Amino acid sequence: MRHGKKINHLGRKTAHRKAMLANMACSLIEHKRINTTVAKAKALKQFIEPLVTKSKEDTTHNRRIVFSRLRQKGAVAELFRDVAVKVGDRPGGYTRIIKLGNRLGDNADMAMIEFVDFNTIYNADKPKKKTTRRSRRGNTKAVAATPPAASQEEE
Question: Could you tell me if 20 and 12 are in contact, meaning their C-beta atoms sit under 8 angstroms apart?
Answer without folding.
Answer: yes
